[in-house]
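for the record, two folds in this file. i put them one after another cuz i was lazy. first one right below, seq on top, structure tokens after. the second one comes after a little note so u can tell where it starts
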Amino acid sequence: MNAPRRIALLLALLLSAGTSTAHAPAPASEWLSYRDAYRAMVMFQKYGGPKHYLQNQLQLVPARQGAVVPDLRLILQTRDGDQYLALDPTGRAAFPLSTAAYNENAPLLVNGGVGPVGFRARVSIVPRTNGLYDSAELRAACGQALDYLRYTDTSARARACVGVRFVYPHVDAAVVAPAPVRLRSGAAEAVAVALPVTQGGAFPDDGQTGFRVVNYRFSHGAEPNQLITSSTPLAITPLIE
């Protein structure tokens, strides 16, 4: 082979290798076992107690403290293709229970450069579309969450349900936002009073603390109260102490 042809062949091989590298998918920074997540999440489905006020979601938990990175993505990679699982700002996603994915132990890929990531099964209270919550229903929902916790963890039998937490995204201090949760006591014509807003985590044991939270604690008696939300919360979580 003469020199010009040899040089042309080498250039073609180099260009081909460069093109292949450019189109190769970037590796995920972390991955989780679908089987491990499935075992944790399927317990809620198998639970036979009342749970109509509750929802169960998978929450990603970065080892590094702080809010979830905005571009964090969770991808279930199966032989039939990739399924993107939408994450909310608290790092939670609706988890698909799939026998096929369990059998092949499909990986859950985590993209976003947050480093090591774990997961938790998170039970919360289903938000209402009309934004109105009767205190009696919130108490019942919290009770369901406590009963489920006792089902999964016998050490929780001595704990009690003391209230609920409404969770909202962080807003800049310069932004004037309406009161996220107001409380109306007694009669329907009573004036609704704004409940105090603090900063904290969506869940009491959550390391992500950059949310606006409103805690509503139950009174010792049967309170005929109504809570009114100005917008749909990111989460309504039980306060169990």
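(here's the note) second protein begins now
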Amino acid sequence: MGKKDIEVLIVEDDLRIAEIQKRFIEKIEGFQAVGIAAGYVDAITLIDILKPDLLLLDVYFPDMNGLELLRELKLHSKQTDVIMITATREIEKVQEAISIGVFDYIIKPLVFERFKQSLLRYQDYHEKLSQLGKANPVVTQQQVDKLLRKEMNELNNEKSYLPKGIDPLTLEKVMEVIGKGGAGLTAESVAKEIGVSRTTARRYLEHLVSIEKIEADLTYGTVGRPERVYMSIG
């Protein structure tokens, strides 16, 4: 008998975004989207019925605040972990979410690589917790430290690993260009600067976003679609 999939409930009032999250989940082995809740009543009902392992939770809804729902879950000792996925960037909201006990906090627009990284890290945590529970109802200090720590060694290894199609010298050039970019650069401007195609530049930029070396945002011009811009963190 194989391992049971981690069951995920999406709590998001924008059904288009919820569907994107659902499709992202379907691409990651070991996870299953078990439902979508667009508001407070749906969320509470589905949490009680489905008892999901993980919630993907936004902050602002027409009938509730996601942080209040998170606080309510923790107050009633619901055994459900939470990853916030939201456009909310205010530091006090981020701090509040962390203090209540979110597993991760992802800022929209959602990038698949960053999303996948978060879910795989949660999967690792979930498996370790399950194994510890089966082995012994009590744990050692070392086991607790390993669970709570962000696994910095693993994270550093993950960041130093270069996937197929990412050359270290080109990656360094992209980082240098972004470092001089100030308010933000598009994939097209980075491509021109280092002499590669726009598609190649975007691949390197999205890789850097996924490992949290740089950050991305949307800029809205006077005409056309909003454009993704990249900048140094901090």
